[in-house]
Amino acid sequence: MNEGEQLCEAAKNGDSDKVRALIESGADVTHFDADGLSPLMHAAKLGHAELLKILLSAGAPWNALSPSNLSAGDFAMEAAHQEAFEVLLNAGIQAELVLGTIARKESKNANFEQDYLEDRVSFSEDKLMDSDSKAVMMAWEKPLMEAHAKAVCSGGGHILNIGFGMGLVDTAIQQYAPVTHTIVEAHPEVYERMLRTGWGEKENVKIIFGRWQDVLAQLETYDGIFFDTYGEYYEDLREFHQHLPTLLKPGGIYSFFNGLCGGNAFFHVVYCHLVSLELENLGYSTQLIPLPVKDCLGGEVWEGVKHKYWQLNTYYLPVCQSMEDTE
Ligand SMILES: C[S@@+](CC[C@H](N)C(=O)[O-])C[C@H]1O[C@@H](n2cnc3c(N)ncnc32)[C@H](O)[C@@H]1O
Predict the structure, then answer these.
(1) Ligand 1: centre distance to CA 255 (Å)
(2) Atom of ligand 1 nearest to the CA of 212
(3) Where does the record place its ANK repeats (predicted)?
(4) What is the pLDDT of residues 22-32, one digit of tens each?
(5) How far is the CA of 273 from the centre of ligand 1 (A)?
(6) Most ligand 1 atoms within 8 A of CB, residue of 182, 187, 215 to mutate
(7) What is the distance in A from the centroid of ligand 1 to the CA of 132?
């Protein structure tokens, strides 16, 4: 048995002394055993918090995935090992806070959004797709969009929505008859369709065509703001948040589509914490309201769609408010 295998065995047995000794002699903490599991995953399954700390400080990656796409955090979460879960959650948040700095720099070179905005999109009854058969927006999200609309319209007044897509959230916002309803949309074909379907003639609606980054000067202040774009990165969402203090009125409500890492339950928890933490640093408290979505997602929903961007049973709808208002 090589040292990596021995490390997995020792972790499986919860033998911290052996794990320490093997690490000291240079055993590979990133090793995967024949089942595709790492020492960290074995420690997480056992709920051995101390062992997790030893492995993490020796450089074991918190976000490695098993063949069934589960991370150590998923194993701890599944087995309800609270302490182990928290150790891994903190490791994930710390790593992303640091690595986020790198992602921030790299994303500046990415042109996924630019390609999307220049390509054709196709509309059908139940989805809006990009030219690569990736779903931009899907009808199964309608109840979620209605819940977002309810949250951001709870104080009435002036509402801002970034990203029209299929118009689900905007249709729901209209039902609350806001004083004004501003919609920012960047894709020329989505914009054309908005005009064709009469959105430009609604009395309280103002459409601003362009990327939100480019039209900030045309925006005012709002009582409710919703953000849901496509082709952007976590960094863009973060950047939008930097503008909240100038866009959101005191007492206003902000919400965004919370699809962060929607393919993995533990990564999603890490990102929910991360975004709440970053909003907190800007002076906003975030409440995450759990909404069951399993019933909206029959197997046929993803037929013909390349990227299954959501695979979790619960959606956590963020409701953000200035901490001054909630005190
Ligand atoms: C996921 S869809 C929005 C779905 C919408 N919430 C609904 O209820 O149907 C994202 C939309 O954002 C638009 N978009 C992408 N990048 C944008 C940007 N930087 N500024 C404004 N809109 C953008 C896309 O063209 C697309 O229409």
Answers:
(1) 14
(2) 20
(3) 35-67
(4) 999 999 999 99
(5) 24
(6) 187
(7) 16
Determine the CATH number of domain 113-326. Answer: 3.40.50.150
Across the chain, what does the average pLDDT equal? 94
| Confidence (pLDDT) at 103 | 59
Tell me what the mean pLDDT of segment 236-245 comes to.
Answer: 96
Atom of ligand 1 nearest to the CA of 184: 21
Query: Domain spans of the chain?
Result: 3-106, 113-326
* 317 within ligand 1 shell (Cβ under 6 A): no
Superfamily of domain 3-106: Ankyrin repeat-containing domain (1.25.40.20)
What band does 311 get if pLDDT is binned at 50, 70 and 90?
confident
142-157 burial, b at 16+ Cβ within 10 Å, e below that, comes to bbbbbbbbbbbbeeeb
pLDDT at 307: 81
> pLDDT tens, 130-175?
999 999 999 999 999 999 999 999 999 999 999 999 999 999 999 9
- H or E stretch covering 101: helix 82-107
Tokens of 18: 């052996």
194-198 — which CB contacts under 8 Å span 24+ positions?
194/164, 194/167, 197/167
Distance CA 71, CA 265 (A): 9
**Fold agreement between 3-106 and 113-326:** no
Residue 113 Cβ inside 6 Å of ligand 1? The answer reads yes
Q: Is the CB of 121 under 6 A from ligand 1?
A: no
pLDDT of residue 105: 54
